[in-house]
Structure formats: structure tokens, C-alpha cells
Amino acid sequence: MTSAILDLSRMKPAFADPTSESQFIFRKLLDAMSQPGTLHDLSAAPTPPPGVSRAAAAVILTLSDQDASLWLDPALRGGEAETWFRFHCGASLVTDPAAAAFAVICHDLASADLRIFNQGDAKYPDCATTVIVETPALEGGAAITLSGPGIQSTATVAPAALDAAFWRQRAEIVSKFQFGVDLFITAGDRLFAMPRTTRVNLQGV
Amino acid sequence: MNAATNTAASNASSEAAYYTHAYLDEQTKRMIRRAILKAIAIPGYQVPFGSREMPVPYGWGTGGIQVTAALIGPRDVYKCIDQGADDTTNAVSIRKFFATVADVETTESTADATIIQSRHRIPELPLREGQIMVLQVPQPEPLRGLESRETETRAMHAYEEYGLQYVSLYENISAFGRIAGGAGYPVLVDERYLMSPSPIPKFDNPKMHLSPALLLFGAGREKRIYAVPPYTRVRSLDFEDYPFEVQKWTQACALCASHESYLDEVILDDSGNRMFICSDTDHCATRRADGHHGSMSDFSLEDAEQSRTGGERP
Questions:
Q1: Nearest Cα to Cα of residue A186 among A26, A58, A15
Q2: Residue A109's closest CA among A170, A35, A174?
Q3: Residues A110-130: b if buried by 16+ CB within 10 A, e if exposed
Q4: Which residues of chain A does B128 touch, with a Cβ-Cβ cutoff of 8 Å?
Q5: Which of A90, A141, B41, B281 is deepest in the core (most CB within 10 A)?
Q6: pLDDT tens per residue across span A86-119
Q7: Euclidean distance between CA atoms A88 and A38, whole angstroms
Q8: Sheet order of strands, B193-195 included
């Protein structure tokens, strides 16, 4: 994230119609965040750069800009993805995860540390980072049961590559509510959300 | 192609072309959208946002309008009510605003709407999953009447220090024998954040508890957005020996005979005649269309005026 000049000759397009496309995607994200654990299809979003899922790219394109800094997984830095986000969002890319409004983690999820991100301030818990967790698939992993605001009784999800240690770490973080991080769990064209209020039942993991 | 239709269509599109879609610029919408998502993630917490100047004065729904503008799209059907009524100046002008700047379909029917913006009421018809209720808020801080400093109220929310609010309710009981507040009655959201429900009558408070619809609150002058996600616990504050209760009426609606809805008192003349009618005009009209008749459903203000003055115009 040090190169001063963007290579525009190989820049891939993003939204063809930013106003209507970002409105459409925002409403999907709104539904996802207000109904945690429900899967949402973002196949209408632009083709993402290599290394990033369409769903994760859609979240960043829709929400990030010069006022909302972005932290990228080290695996995505210095490549086409970084250039794409810099050009299309104008987002300020940060290396300090605690300074990020949005973050993408996509490698070594088993050892991912959510505590490095901004957990919010007691008086301003909205400053906490929104973390996009890129998984190989939203199905086929260990099933977890969700409850809390936005969920009528319970919801069940089974994202791949997220193990009991990941959920225990998240549970510890969000047990200090109003502190916590809010998650978008993505894979391919789809995502679901887990705000910090969502409680996870680990039975079966 | 018909020339007349063509001209009408091009007039409409050229008028819309003067505006950015939904009035706000894209960066402002992104800022509001980020605030809305954080508001949902922390139910009842007031997220500060960079409220913009809108083409109506503060107090006319600038917060609600900005929240709606950040949400609204071509698939939406938009309803706007003021004190329950679809046909008052504020409601009509905001509805026309979004019909113009967002080219969106509008309705007066609660059942047909996807976004319902409201000042001071939640409709009588139970909201359903997928609907979004946008409430206009004059004063988002429930503790402001008790503590004027924002730095203090923010700390009180941060440390869940709500004793002062309970003292205030207690003082109310010792002065009036009951909790006398009628509107903007404070609630606790998901057993954590104290929240002002906006100046809806406390009659509407129970509708927020485990509501299938998303509730969003926008305060333009005070620059705050907050939310109650669907299926979230919302508890009106009370005491074991003074439980929360809502307004009750001995009358039924004089137009549709409803016993369940929130009633407005309408003064008819200067000799003490009055009627009670549903505040929710869509609810009342739907019931009348379904064949319900109240005691004064044939009442006409013009006829009453004529019989009083003997046909002479004042």
C-alpha cells in the first residue's frame, strides 16, 4: 500500500450504475444485519478482483469511502485487490487494524485474531470495526445455532473453516457488550451477518 | 408513439433529472448507511451522524427523511403518516418529495407499504417481516430532560446508569399517583440501552416489543440515528406495584366503531359537542370499507354548520 501511482491500464470496472446498484446491495446488507444468520445473494454485484469474493467486494464498494478506512488481510496487500479498492472506493487503506472501520480477513481463519480490531469505545461503541470474514463456503462446516435480536427463535448456520476456537474467541469479545465487532461472513456470491448482539450456541461444534 | 404521452413522460423524467436519486449525494448516503448498520448492531444506542440540511425545516422530519433517502429504491412502496394521518400537510409533502426525487410508488395503505415513515404513531395494523418503519425524532436522548449535558448522558448510557430515570418515574407517581407521561415513554431495548421511542403515544409502545418489522429512528437536528431490529425485546419502564399501562377510552371510534385503536378527540363546535375518531386514517378507512359503522359515520360538518347557523354563511 505504498505505491503512489495506480496502474489504471489493468483496472477492472466496478459498479456500472453506482446509485442504483449500491442501493440494491445496501438493502441486502440491511436485511442481513437485521436478520442475523439469513443468507443473502449478491450475485448482482460487480465481478471482484482476484482473491476477494463477490460478496466481500460488494460490502466494501457499498460502504467504504474516504471516511471509512479499510484494513486488508496481508494476503491481499500490494495486489490487484488493493488497487481496485483504492481506485473504486477512495478508501484510506490502513495497516493498523484498530484504526479500521472495515476489515477483510481471508487466510488462516483458524488462527484469526478478532481482538486486534477496534472493539469500540464505551461511549461510542459504533466505532468498532466491521469485519468481513471470507470463508470457502457458507455450508458444510460445523453447525452453530444463533439467537438474539433479529432472530425470532433460533437460526442455524454452518460456515466452513470457522472452528470452535474462532467462535469461543468471538463469544469472549462480545460478552463485553457494548464492545465487540460486527461480522459479515462471506463465501462466493453470498453472505450472512452476525452483529455483536448475536449469541452463538456451540453445541455440535 | 403518442405525442402527448411522450411529452408527459419527458417532463417527468426531466424534473427528476434535476435531483440526485433520493436527494442525497452518494457519499452522504454511504455515511448514513454505515450509521444505520451500526445502529442495528447496537440496538437502542444513538449513533451520531453528519445530518445534512434538508429542504424542510428542523422539526418537519429531517431525520426521518434522511434515513428514508438512504434506504429507498425502485422496488419500494412508500407510505408517510403524521399523527396517524396520511392526509395532513407534513405527510403529503414528504410523500410527494420522495415521489419526485426517488420516483417511488407511494401508498396510503399500511399493508402495501415497504417503508413507512411516521411522525408520532405506529400504525394499528400489525407490521410484518420485511417492512421498515422510519420514525422522525425531535429529541433522541431520553435522559435529556433530566441531564442537559451530552457528555453526562453519554456516560450514563455507557455505564448503564439509569437510576435517575427511575427516580423521575417515582417522582411522577408521588406527584400524580401514576406515571403520567403519555408520549415518548422511555423503553429499555434488549435489556441494555434506554431509548426514547420518539413522541409516539405510550399506547404504541407494546407494538415495538418483538416487532417483526425493523424500526429505524432519525433525529435530524440532534444528528442521531438509532434502531430496534426485528424480534427485539422492548420493555417500557415501570415498577412492580405501578405496572406500565396504555391509554384506554370509554368510547369507540365514531366513524368505524373500533374499540382497539388510538382515538383522537375532535371538537365539533363551540357548544361542547365532540367526537372521538381513529388517529390512524388508513385503519379507519379500511374498517369502514369493510362495512363497520360508528355512531356518527353519517356526520357531516357542513350539515351541522348549516343547521346551527340556519343556512346563513357566517
A1: A58
A2: A170
A3: eebebebbbbbeeeebbebbb
A4: none
A5: B41
A6: 999 998 999 999 999 999 999 888 889 999 999 9
A7: 28
A8: B193-195, B187-189, B234-236
Please indicate if any CB of chain B lies within 8 Å of the CB of A101: yes
Dihedral sign for Cα B139, B143, B147, B149, please.
Answer: negative
User: Mean pLDDT, to the nearest integer, of B61-88?
Assistant: 97
**Three-state secondary structure readout of chain B:** CCHHHHHHHHHHHHHHHCCCCCCCCHHHHHHHHHHHHHHHHCCCCCEECCCCCCCCCCCCCHHHHHHHHHHCCCCCEEEEEECCECCCHHHHHHHHHHHHHCCCEECCCCCCCCEEEEECCCCCCCCCCCCEEEEECCCCCCCCCCCCCHHHHHHHHHCCCCHHHHHHHHHHHHHHCCCCCCECCCEEECCCEEECCCCCEHHHHHHHCCCCCEEEEEECCCCEEEEECCCCCEEECCECCECCCCCCCCCCCCCCCCCCCCEEEEECCCCCCEEEEECCHHHHHHHHHCCCCCCCCCCCHHHHHHHHHCCCCC
Nearest to A197 among B37, B43, B74 (CB): B43
How many percent of chain B have pLDDT more than 90? 85
* Cα Rg of chain A, angstroms: 16
- CB proximity A24 to B under 8 Å: yes
Catalytic residues of B: 44, 253, 256, 278, 284
Q: What are phi and psi of A94, to 5 degrees?
A: -120, 150
Residues 6+ apart with CB under 8 A from B143: B153, B156, B157, B162, B164, B165, B194
B contacts of A182 (beta carbons < 8 Å)? 37-38, 41
pLDDT surpasses 60 at A67:
yes
* Nearest C-alpha neighbor of B160 from the set B270, B242, B45: B45
Q: What is the pTM of this model?
A: 0.94
Nearest residue of B to residue A125 by CA position? B42
When CB atoms are compared, the residue of A101, A150, A177 closest to B192 is: A177
Nearest to B127 by CA among B215, B67, B40, B205: B215
Distance from CA of A63 to the nearest CA of B (A): 6
B72 neighbourhood in chain A, CB within 8 Å: 23
Contact A150 B42 (CB under 8 A): no
Task: List chain B residues with CB under 8 Å of A197.
Answer: 41-43, 190, 229
Question: How far is the alpha carbon of A183 from chain B, nearest alpha carbon, in Å?
Answer: 10
